[in-house]
Automatic annotation (TrEMBL):
GO cellular component, one term: cytosol
UniProt-listed PANTHER family: PHOSPHATASE YKRA-RELATED, PHOSPHOSERINE PHOSPHATASE
Name assigned to this protein: Cof subfamily of IIB subfamily of haloacid dehalogenase superfamily/HAD-superfamily hydrolase, subfamily IIB
Record Pfam families: Hydrolase_3
Gene Ontology terms for molecular function: magnesium ion binding; phosphatase activity
Species of origin: Terribacillus aidingensis
Top-level taxon in the UniProt lineage: Bacteria
């Protein structure tokens, strides 16, 4: 079988509604590797937020921070931090409007303020506790992604006059902030280049708004049954809900396992 590369989103794709990796998914990932394919994670999470998943599934390639920090077989091949002046501009406005932020570096994240309910609730949905506080962290280290804590109606106000960054909502109370040119698609392209494969050899699996560019670009887009409607419109293969072993079923339908 011709070698392929398979990109797997985490939340809602690898992890089910209980935040667990189904046994069928573990077996499917192993089958992909047994069949000689590359397996890569493609996520909005920071590398330090899914190290346990990489270890459990024995995956050494990943697109993290929605494409801003990319590793191929254990080697860092792409880094695209947000420009410090753009972060400062956004932070100043967020602070004036009393919205909290979290700044995410290579190995840690820092919050701009203490005891913010939006931070606590949204990060808890991923199984993470409140970060340490350092509102000046983005002055000290490269920041590959930030989190802005606000509701959707408030996000639109920020997006209308911060042209150098992108806002991608992942929770009712929070959105990712990326460089304007950042996306999972960019990370996918970097990994394809490193693996010396074409986009036709790429299979991308996902369920969220941050998967749109990746699913559209990959040779085959496998979209979960629990995906947002916008992503389902781009699907080459629409599989079952993540809680119904959708990932394993989709990979079988694609003929990869």
């Amino acid at each position: 079988m011709e070698k392929k590369i398979v990109f797997l989103d985490i939340d809602g794709t690898i992890l089910n509604s209980q935040g667990e990796i189904p046994q069928a998914t573990k077996e499917a990932v192993q089958a992909l590797k047994d069949n000689g394919h590359y397996v890569a994670i493609a996520t909005g999470r920071a590398p330090f937020m899914f190290e346990d998943i990489r270890k459990e599934l024995d995956i050494a390639s990943f697109v993290s921070y929605n494409g801003q920090y990319v590793v191929f077989e254990g080697e860092v091949i792409h880094q695209n931090p947000i420009a410090r002046e753009h972060l400062l501009h956004l932070y100043n406005e967020a602070s004036e409007k009393e919205h909290a932020m979290v700044f995410m570096g290579e190995s840690i994240m820092k919050a701009s303020e203490t005891d913010n309910g939006f931070i606590e609730e949204s990060l808890a949905s991923l199984g993470f506790t409140y970060p340490d506080i350092d509102k000046d962290y983005f002055h000290q280290e490269p920041i590959y992604q930030a989190l802005l804590f606000c509701e959707e109606k408030e996000e639109e106000t920020f997006a209308s006059h911060h042209d150098h960054v992108r806002f991608i909502r992942w929770h009712p109370l929070s959105c990712d902030v990326l460089p304007r040119d950042g996306s999972k698609k960019v990370g996918l392209m970097k990994l394809l280049e490193a693996a010396q494969l074409s986009e036709k050899s790429a299979y991308a699996c996902g369920d969220g708004l941050n998967d749109l560019e990746m699913i559209a670009y990959a040779g085959t887009g496998i979209v979960m049954g629990n995906a947002v409607p916008e992503l389902k419109e781009l699907a080459d293969i629409q599989t079952a809900h993540v809680d119904e072993n959708g990932l394993a079923l989709g990979l079988k339908q694609a003929g990869l396992i």
